[in-house]
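Tubulin polyglutamylase ttll6
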Amino acid sequence: MAKSAETALCVMKRCDVALVAFIDGGVIIIGVVVDGSCSSGEIVVVNVSNCRYEVVRSAAKSAGWRVEEDEDEYDALVADATAGTAAAAPATRTAHQQAVILRHHHAYARARTREPWNVYWTDTSVSSQRAMRLERFQRLNHFPGMYHLARKGGLGKHLTQLAKLFPSDFSFFPQTWVLPQQWSEFKERIESGKGNRTFIIKPDASCQGKGIFLTRTHENVNPTESQVAQRYLHKPLLIDGFKFDMRIYVILTSVDPLRIFLFEDGLVRICTQKYVEPRGRNLQKSRMHLTNYAINKESEDFVFNEATSDPGTGNKRSLRWFWGWLEEQHGKDARDGFVAETHDMIIKSIISVLPQLRHIYRSCVKHPGPSNCFEILGFDVLMDRKFKPWLIEVNHSPSFACDTPLDTDIKSRLIAKTMALIGVHASDKRKSRQRLKKDAQSRLYGATAPKSRRRLQYDGASTES
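Predicted structure tokens:
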């Protein structure tokens, strides 16, 4: 597996992405160039009613797409149901409940009459029910079931199972215990005192560093909470004495077959307090041990990058800058080896949950053709002093907030490339409707009848049309 993964990445310089598509053990390389409009006046419509990021809207407009802000039909129905108002008897509804019902009713009515969207871009994960409602020409920016990869506990479980079967191929993530299921194993390991005695505890579904802490004892770990415990990587590579990690962006455009694109740029996030290996007194210093931007940006020592022309300054830097820094400081072999191992790690991580992703997708989407879903994933990777990459976690809803010019530059390019890669055309709706009409005629007249001489059966008699 390692060899195939190593040779599978082919960098497409023109569009800043690399693609791996595994089909029955083989690899294909493709590229897509998409225009948002066509000569007939048709246009791609993207619904961003559940997206708060302006960079998504800007990228869509730059692609020639029309941005739709009104609530989607499905969202209106779900909001009405979850508001808890529809079930109330009309006589017992409050004025607020009645207003909520009317608002969502009007949104539903508008959605039923307006032109359907091509792309629905949402900041949150999607349910299987949402995916089931997709028409052939529509795209959704999340796969149902992605929690298998994005939840820390789920990913840890899948990778641990594969590591038992292929230990040398799946050694890129820290030893992990899923709690509370593996509480006894974790307690036994931490009490043994063997090896590195520092562990990091993370809530299963948290983000932005919330609820994360270091410990050397099981006594301050709640054995009943849903969380993961990992061996803490206490010897990371440092930049100017500070711990850092990398946010590597991956674009998943299909799970059946599997198509993985690697975006060539990303973010390097640097702590604001100089690193010292964990001891009892410094375990609570989150800005020394945790690289999360949300934690470090509040520090008075945090330096914002003010210009894209200088990507090597500040506590958030570009991944392209880092590749140059790594080669300059530690040599080309260190850089090339790390890049190859990182590509291998990304591919294997997704493959570890591929059976689950495919099963859920196939159960939701019945019609053939291009994938109705896509996903931008944020892989958080740490490098140790031996230049080995370690997978920390995978984010299926990475932040597209643009607090600095560097953020805007990288994230706008990432989203623009994603919109180009998903293969949306302005004529998709018309062609889809034509195909539906043709399929209906085939069912009515007989799929095997010649196009020019359809035979219509009437109680044993026949006529030609």
